[in-house]
């Protein structure tokens, strides 16, 4: 499965009644596809999945799949720290027609490397969909080590990993030692270019909500050998990336989208809106992209 190169971890729009805003979801999907996004990850962390009910996740995934209508791959965030529940959601997502699933490392219960191997392998074997692992110890406390990733890469339908450890040595070894068709995506917006230089495939991005075209241009420039141009783009968007993560994600990116005229609404508790000072900071840095 080719998930493409620039994937957006899409926000979930909410209306004033704290319900999913499906009309605005249409506008958001069209906007993303028109502005550099080559794949959509739905109901992930940036989509505020911890605050979505099971029913909301299924309803939203069904809507996204139908509205995207094959224009780009749709990947569902079906991972959790409960293996059985992840299997149920994965199988339901498959029935809805998603193109792949993303499985985050199990949070809170702190499994061993063997426990994580069995967790991911068991979920992968419950579906025919291609699977992208998601290694993000900053949120989950546990991290997949190299040997575990290599074992999991031997599972037929585990085809990719979103790497958000920030550990370029680990990422380099994953790229080197996994099969050539195993894709490694940056899970950190600011590390896209370094990971491309190590042989990575692309990115699962938050900042692509705002600088998707620029990220796409960076990937294309790098892969066509225009490394100086890719570096220039990275340097230009680096402050934007930093500003979009100046508050708990996706608070700042939802604010920036609203300034661009996309009414994606608020964040759900326990996240809270930006302060006036935080809004001013985002405006100062990101404003030229509004």
UniProtKB/TrEMBL annotation:
Gene3D superfamilies (UniProt xref): Aldolase class I
Binding site for pyruvate: 46, 204
InterPro entries for this protein: Aldolase_TIM, DapA, DapA-like, Schiff_base-form_aldolases_AS, Schiff_base-form_aldolases_CS
EC numbers: 4.3.3.7
Keyword Hydrolase: no
Marked site: Part of a proton relay during catalysis: 45, 108
SMART domains reported in the protein's UniProt record: DHDPS
Presence of the UniProt keyword Cytoplasm in the record: yes
GO cellular component labels: cytosol
Gene Ontology biological process: diaminopimelate biosynthetic process; lysine biosynthetic process via diaminopimelate
Biological function: Catalyzes the condensation of (S)-aspartate-beta-semialdehyde [(S)-ASA] and pyruvate to 4-hydroxy-tetrahydrodipicolinate (HTPA).
Protein's name in the database: 4-hydroxy-tetrahydrodipicolinate synthase
Source organism per UniProt: Halolactibacillus miurensis
């Amino acid at each position: 499965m080719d998930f493409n190169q620039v994937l957006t971890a899409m926000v979930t729009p909410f209306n004033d009644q704290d319900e999913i805003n499906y009309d605005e979801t249409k506008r958001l999907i069209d906007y993303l596809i028109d502005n550099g996004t080559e794949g959509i990850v739905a109901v992930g962390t940036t989509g505020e999945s911890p605050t979505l009910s099971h029913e909301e996740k299924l309803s939203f995934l069904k809507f996204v799949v139908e509205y995207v209508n094959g224009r780009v791959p749709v990947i569902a965030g079906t991972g959790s720290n409960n293996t059985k529940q992840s299997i149920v959601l994965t199988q339901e997502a498959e029935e809805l027609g998603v193109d792949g699933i993303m499985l985050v490392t199990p949070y809170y219960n702190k499994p061993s490397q063997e426990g994580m191997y069995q967790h991911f392998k068991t979920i992968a074997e419950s579906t025919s969909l291609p699977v992208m692992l998601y290694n993000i110890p900053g949120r989950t406390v546990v991290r997949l080590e190299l040997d575990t990733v290599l074992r999991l890469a031997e599972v037929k339908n585990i085809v990719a990993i979103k790497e958000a450890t920030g550990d370029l040595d680990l990422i380099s070894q994953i790229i080197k030692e996994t099969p050539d068709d195993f894709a490694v995506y940056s899970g950190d917006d600011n590390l896209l270019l370094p990971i491309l230089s190590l042989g990575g495939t692309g990115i699962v991005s938050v900042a692509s909500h705002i600088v998707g075209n620029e990220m796409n241009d960076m990937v294309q420039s790098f892969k066509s050998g225009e490394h100086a141009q890719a570096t220039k783009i990275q340097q230009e968007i680096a402050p934007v990336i930093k500003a979009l993560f100046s508050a708990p994600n996706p608070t700042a990116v939802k604010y920036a989208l609203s300034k661009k005229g996309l009414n994606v609404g608020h964040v759900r508790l326990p996240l809270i809106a930006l302060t006036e000072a935080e809004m001013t900071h985002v405006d100062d840095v990101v404003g030229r992209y509004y």
